[in-house]
Structure formats: C-alpha cells, structure tokens
Design a protein that fits this description.
With 350 residues, the chain is α/β, with parallel strands linked by helices. Helix content is 46%, strand content 12%. The chain has ten helices and eight strands.
C-alpha cells in the first residue's frame, strides 16, 4: 500500500489543496488519516468486484484455467494490476472503463421458462397466435440472459402423453461487447421462434387429436417435476389455457358441479399431484384466465358466471398449497413486466 500511495500522491498532486497554517496542516493530517482508512476499505471492495469481472471476461473470451496461453495470462495479470492501481487512486475500478469501450459485466442471470399449451376445444392454447404472443415476450428476455432454458410443452388426453415439443438454451457469445451480445440475442430469437412454431404445427393441424380432455393439473405437476432449478435461477411456468380442467382426476370443470377446495386438495395430494412444495421454485403465470368466464365449448351446458368464479378459487387454492413463489392470473397474453420479479434469494425473503 505504501508504494501505491506514493504512486497516487504523484498522480493526484496537482489536485491537492494547499494548507497555509499549522492548525490547518494538523487538521488536514487528521482528515487524511481518516480518509486513508476509508480508502483501504474501498480499495478492497472494488478489487473484489473487479476480480469477478476479470474472471467473467476471461471466460467469455475462452480462457480456461491451465489451458490459457501466455498472452492470456499476461492479460489477466495486467487487468488485475490495473484494478489495484485504479482502486488505490480512488477510481471506481475497471467496470466504467471497460463499459466505455463496449465491454460490460452487466449480464443478468439465466432463467428457466416452461410454456404449457392446452390445445383442447375453446382453449387459447389451440391458437398459434397465443403462442406467438408468449414467444414475443419470453424469447428476448431469455436471449439477453445467456444460459436460459425455454421449453414448450403440449397437453394431450392424459398427463402421460403430455410431452416436450421443443427445448432450447440461449448461448453466451464468444465476446461480451455490446454488439456481440445484441447479435447473439437476435440470432437466438430468430432460430427459437422458428423452431417452436414448427414443432406445434403438426399438433394444431391434427384433426384426430383429442379435443375434449384437459388434464391441466397433472400436466403442470409433470412439468414441475421435470428438472431441478439451479441456485439463483428463476423459473417461470406459463400456462396457455382456459383453465377448465377435464380429466379423470380433476373431473369436469366445464359443466359439472365443482368440489370444495379443501376436499379437492385432499384428492389431489392423495394422488401425489401438486403436493405441498412441488411448486416452491416456480412463478406461475396463467394466461387468458378470463376464459373461465366465456361460453362453454361446443355449448355442452349454459354459461354461469359464478361457475367461473369458483374455478378461479380452486386454482388459487391448489397453487397456494403447492407453494408457488407467485401466481398471476392474466386476462390475455403475458407482458415483459410479468417476468420482472425479484431474484430467487430476494423473493424468498419477502
């Protein structure tokens, strides 16, 4: 620190005020001693931040441990030395300087997104436009958050037949410049949208698919159990459906009398479906939830507004009991704000 202090004193000599009296000199000495202690703490904090930034930059450029070249090791040493000198002299470390030349450490963490389509009659999941609306929001965000996973699921007559149609991950660019990141995001959006829409085309155009059954609850349970969520990764479960369950386990929510929430939860949990804690990692977004207040498909029974209210209450009870991080009932498609929730550690503390 003594050598760094000499370096900085020479660097900042022109900016130091002159003291004209003995009292002023003594006061300035005490103030300088206090500032020196504060400066040491700031140097340590800034250097710690810069070391993380240097590691991220080296990984982004392909530097990996013992396999790095002599040039890459010299680059790492130069960056660390620059961090020490800049921090000791009172600057804010490497981040502002690197950002000014197009390099940035502000790369947000990855997310996991599961989109679940209900292609039954009367469901918005049977409409390609509904899927496009979701992709227009999800793909840009996943593309910006390198390492994010996006999966597209399709329900069938039973939960056993519910399957993944397509799964893609946004890759980190080789360089972290603003231009490279933007190009990588645009490339991911283009390729992912084409792949997801292509995978749903055979399903939505199949005239022989079962259009009368919607095992929504069991399908959500299957999706939730599909994979674990890594630390500090947020998971979103987006359901595109009219939320009218029609299955052996759930019953017929289109026309039949609905069960009381307490009784229904016992039935679900005894079948090991959406048990407590099964959605503890998920932010659930139920899109087009206003469908419960629309006419019943195929006019199987008359529309009753109170019936839709009961369906929503059942969903609220089921998801709360399963321990969801959050739940949103959307009248239409999702928006970017729906994916703007606190990071997992922050969300758990709320």
């Amino acid at each position: 620190m003594r050598y760094l202090r000499r370096f900085c004193m020479g660097h900042q000599k022109a900016d130091r005020p002159r003291t004209e009296t003995a009292f002023g000199a003594a006061l300035a000495g005490r103030r300088e001693g206090h500032q020196r202690n504060c400066r040491k703490e700031k140097v340590l904090k800034t250097m710690t931040s810069d070391i993380g930034l240097i590691r991220q930059l080296l990984e982004a450029t392909g530097c990996r441990g013992s396999g790095t070249s002599a040039t890459e090791r010299r680059l790492a040493a130069l960056l660390i030395l620059s961090s020490v000198l800049m921090s000791a002299c009172g600057y804010d470390g490497l981040a502002p300087a690197l950002k000014s030349i197009g390099l940035s450490k502000d790369v947000p963490g990855p997310i996991q997104v599961d989109i679940v389509l209900d292609p039954s009659d009367g469901s918005p999941g049977a409409n390609e436009a509904s899927l496009k609306s979701a992709l227009n929001v999800v793909l840009p965000i996943a593309g910006e958050r390198f390492g994010s996973d996006v999966r597209l699921w399709a329900m069938a007559a039973s939960a056993g037949e519910t399957r993944i149609l397509e799964e893609l991950r946004s890759e980190r660019p080789k360089r972290l410049t603003t231009a490279a990141r933007r190009a990588q995001v645009e490339r991911f959006i283009s390729l992912a949208e084409a792949a997801f829409l292509k995978s749903t085309a055979p399903l939505l155009s199949d005239p022989h698919r079962d259009r009368s059954r919607s095992p929504i609850l069991e399908s959500i349970a299957k999706v939730a159990a599909y994979s674990a969520v890594p630390e500090n990764v947020r998971r979103f479960l987006i359901v595109i459906s009219d939320l009218r369950e029609v299955s052996e386990l759930g019953g017929d929510w289109e026309c039949n009398r609905l069960p009381q929430p307490e009784q229904f939860l016992k039935r679900l949990h005894s079948a090991q479906i959406l048990t407590p804690g099964s959605l503890s990692e998920a932010h659930v977004i139920l899109t087009y939830a206003s469908g419960v207040f629309d006419e019943v498909p195929r006019q199987r029974c008359p529309f009753v507004f109170g019936h839709g209210v009961q369906i929503r209450r059942l969903w609220e009870a089921v998801l709360k009991a399963a321990g969801r991080q959050s739940v949103r009932f959307k009248g239409g498609a999702i928006t970017r704000d729906d994916l703007a929730v606190p990071e997992r550690r922050e969300a758990r503390n709320q």
